TrEMBL record:
Glycoside hydrolase family 3 N-terminal domain sequence ranges: 134-445
Record-level Gene Ontology MF annotations: beta-N-acetylhexosaminidase activity
One example of a Gene Ontology biological process annotation: peptidoglycan turnover
Name of protein: beta-N-acetylhexosaminidase
EC numbers: 3.2.1.52
Organism: Eubacterium maltosivorans
Cross-referenced PROSITE patterns: PROKAR_LIPOPROTEIN (PS51257)
PANTHER family, per the entry: BETA-HEXOSAMINIDASE, BETA-HEXOSAMINIDASE-RELATED
Length: 456
């Protein structure tokens, strides 16, 4: 009888204690502490922020936890999947309403950061996406041509996802000046920007063409292969990455994956000048080196330039059969994708075997081939929409809307002040689906996370 009375008093006392804490706190909560499972977003010595998808919630949520009750020790890395058990009797609703951290009794690592990276990035992308307006989402889909001194203000206004610099943007400038200009743009960005350049080597050397940055321009792919083979190619890729990263550039629009063994072809001097197998090996080595260095790579110009003319100046048609593309032109692109390339750029050539009515960059059929034949789920990017192969036939607003409808995730152009509003308006009118916009922005955000631009 005494034991039963003691147990009754203990239970009664617990009930009074629970009722005193909060009417919402039940006896079962007292004896079964609350747990949270999610991904470590950030932490310091005293607190930890967890990103998690709670049941019934429309978007990922964050919760902050008090770590002072845990034994001293190293914390898991950002992105690790963890399970947190709260101290018994914690009134989570009351503490979260007051903005106070939740007291932790136990922290368990369920999945290390490396293994959990893809899931963590996916959830973080959803969190970022949920906080964006339609205008901000569309802005993320533009890789805008660097507008010079107006760049920080334009970035503040339009929030484009990336900017690409050309030779004029490096001319007569010191490395410190270039870094300062890029940093000013990044400071205006609510989501860190992709900062790109064409540094192929040979004819296209936007950065190393400035003697204040490098004594001489990087050599062409053909020169590298002739003088040192694939070892020289790989070493050159690493050197380019180091130089570009020192200037705060995080994307190089390379490697060129086009095939040409005819010196009369427009694209020939920018290619390896070798066969499909050698060019595929070249693409694999360059893209692999860039991936290991944390430098964004852009495979170009899908589905393969071949004998096509200069689309900077005019329309160009390619009448080769589909079998040629499948057996030859696709090989370097496939090798680059398998080596970790984050983006593929689509040309403005009309590929008659795939779509005789549209430039590849504006063709849904070509984009379907890229997704399916190469099993590619990264960022698809247009060639510059200001090239005359496009401007002679399409207005800026029409071209941008058609580019998104075709399946591009990002648009390369300097006319973003016309094109961003045109895409936004097309979504509002129902011409374009916001679900498609969201899918593209997810890919852009995933690419940025892979490059370490977005950490928390």
């Amino acid at each position: 009888m005494k034991r039963l009375l003691s147990l009754f008093l203990i239970i009664s006392a617990c009930g009074l204690l629970i009722t005193g804490c909060s009417p919402a706190l039940t006896l079962s909560q007292f004896f079964s502490p609350v747990t949270f499972t999610g991904y470590l977003l950030k932490s310091d010595d005293a607190t930890l922020t967890l990103l998690c998808q709670n049941e019934g919630a429309k978007e990922p949520e964050t919760s902050v936890f008090d770590l002072t009750g845990l034994p001293q020790g190293s914390l898991p890395e950002t992105g690790s999947e963890v399970k947190i058990t709260l101290k018994a009797g914690t009134d989570t609703e009351s503490l979260e309403t007051q903005g106070d951290p939740l007291p932790v009794r136990r922290l368990e690592v369920l999945t290390a950061s490396d293994a959990a990276e893809k899931s963590f990035h996916s959830l973080l992308a959803e969190k970022l996406l949920a906080g964006m307006s339609l205008e901000e989402k569309v802005g993320q889909m533009f890789f805008a041509r660097y507008p010079g001194p107006a760049a920080p203000e334009d970035e503040k206004t339009w929030q484009f996802g990336g900017t690409i610099l050309f030779g004029r943007d490096f001319k007569d400038k010191s490395p410190d000046q270039i870094r300062a200009e890029i940093n000013a743009c990044q400071d205006a960005a609510r989501v860190p920007m992709l900062v790109g350049v064409d540094e192929e080597g040979g004819d296209v050397v936007r950065v190393s063409g400035n003697p204040a940055i490098r004594a001489e321009g990087f050599p062409s792919p053909q020169t590298l292969l002739q003088k040192g083979g694939m070892d020289a190619v790989t070493a050159d890729a690493h050197e380019k990455d180091a130089l570009l990263k020192s200037l705060n550039i995080n994307v190089n629009f390379a490697p060129v994956c086009d095939l040409s063994q005819n010196p009369a072809d427009y694209i020939y001097s920018r290619t390896t000048g070798r066969d499909a197998a050698t060019t595929a090996e070249y693409a694999k080595n360059v893209a692999g080196a860039m991936t290991s260095d944390g430098m964004g790579s852009v495979l170009k110009h899908f589905p393969g330039y071949g004998p096509g003319g200069d689309t900077h100046k005019d329309f160009s048609r390619d009448s080769r059969p589909l079998e040629t593309f499948e057996s030859q032109d696709f090989l370097p692109f496939r090798a680059g994708v398998q080596a970790g390339a984050g983006s593929v750029l689509v040309s403005h050539n009309v590929i008659e075997a795939m779509d005789p009515d549209h430039p590849a960059s504006l063709s849904p059929k070509v984009h379907e081939v890229l997704r399916d034949a190469l099993d590619f789920d990264g960022v698809i990017l247009t060639d510059d929409l200001d090239m005359e192969a496009i401007t002679k036939a399409y207005g800026a607003d029409t071209a941008a809307v058609q580019a998104v409808a075709a399946g591009n995730d990002m648009i390369l152009s300097s006319r973003y002040t016309i094109e961003i509003p045109a895409v936004v308006e097309a979504v509002r009118k129902g011409t374009l689906s916001e679900d498609q916009i969201d899918a593209s922005v997810r890919r852009v955000l995933a690419w940025k996370m892979d490059l370490g631009l977005i950490e928390n």
